[in-house]
Amino acid sequence: MINSHLKKKLIKSVHILTHLPVYVFNEQFQLENLYVSDRVYVLPYDFKAYCGGLNQPLPFVFSGALEEVFISYSYPGTILIIGPFTTLHLTEDLIKERIHSYTARSAIWPNLFSYLKHLPFFSLGDVRDFLIHLNYLFTGKADCPYSEDLHLQVEQNKILFDEKKLEDCDWRVFQPEYYTYRYEEQLLALVREGNTQKLQKSLALLSNSIIPASTKKPLRSEKNYTIVVLEKLAALAIQSGHDIITIYQLRDYYIQLLEEKSQLIDVLYVRDCAIIHFTQLFHDNVNKNYSPVTQSIIQYIGLNLYTSLNLKEISKKFFISETALCSRFKKETGFSVIAYIHYRKINESKLLLKAGLPPTEVAANLHYYDYSHFSRTFKKFTGISPKEFQLKRESLPPPSFLDTYCPKKLE
């Protein structure tokens, strides 16, 4: 017996491989899920009224009002309806003939024309093999679960849709831009929850057949779309109170990693890693539950590392006394304001040193009193001097949000 999560992944794989809409009903014919993409439209068919009202087993193949074809497949606890598609190559004349013979409502002709024009083509022989594949997926048996007369089934089993509902249908759902927007909204909602386990499970179930805006090269298209996703993840993180500088560094790190890839599968891997990484940030931020004031102070510190930050200036900026500022920041973060400022400056100095800037310039840029002050502070946090750190040949790891944003230990 296939467990529930695996069954959902198998059902989604059917949608991804065929690009066909997949309706998922329970035994009471209540719709539990619908996988769609921007490549195939769906009409407001009442499958429950038709299929649920039958006093006999569900036909494996049946047709719609416009002679489009659907496949049904039943599995314990689940009923799948897959389609629509066509078993004929539809010319414009044939499409118009079908539409005009079905309805005289000229107002819905354009939508019906677009619907039929975008139908995928499968032969009935393909349908037979498809049913065998479905049966193997869910039972492990490569048997034919249908009666042989598929043509007769298609003709005899016809379902109609409500034309009034069609007039009210929002066809934007099937436009690529709108479909992409809906997918990204679902994705960002999952990231915002900060639950990486839920994210990984849900990503496998989201209807996510996104085709990026075309360029001459598919690799460039996928990279461009990944950069768009990274920008939205970064914006979401900043809006939620994460440190601006750190988030931009993290975004840029993934963009650099992305541009190094030459295979499509590697681009997808980088995208998924970034999504999971940003979700982890939200998980940690949810657990911290910083107040808006503390979040703003952290962002302010991050934006002003190249100035001479001090308690008096920060308290004045946020209209709070120095005593209250120190008390609140210490209570919520576990660190004093001054210790946190030094930690952030030292972390920033590591990047500058690895970029080749002389230690004396780094000290001046970060507004330390003098090089001696900078060197002592640097050694306090790292255990070595700035010059020793710069001479190390190994490259720095990517900026870690957990290390930068909330250091576990400040001596």
UniProtKB/TrEMBL annotation:
PROSITE patterns: HTH_ARAC_FAMILY_2. Keywords: DNA-binding, Transcription, Transcription regulation. Residues 295-392 form the HTH araC/xylS-type domain. The keyword Transcription regulation applies. Pfam families: HTH_18. Gene3D superfamilies: Homeodomain-like. It comes from the Bacteria. The lineage of its organism: Bacteria, Bacillati, Bacillota, Clostridia, Eubacteriales. One of its GO terms (molecular function) is DNA-binding transcription factor activity. This is YSIRK-targeted surface antigen transcriptional regulator. InterPro entries: Homeodomain-like_sf, HTH_AraC, Tscrpt_reg_HTH_surface_antigen. The keyword Lipid biosynthesis does not apply.
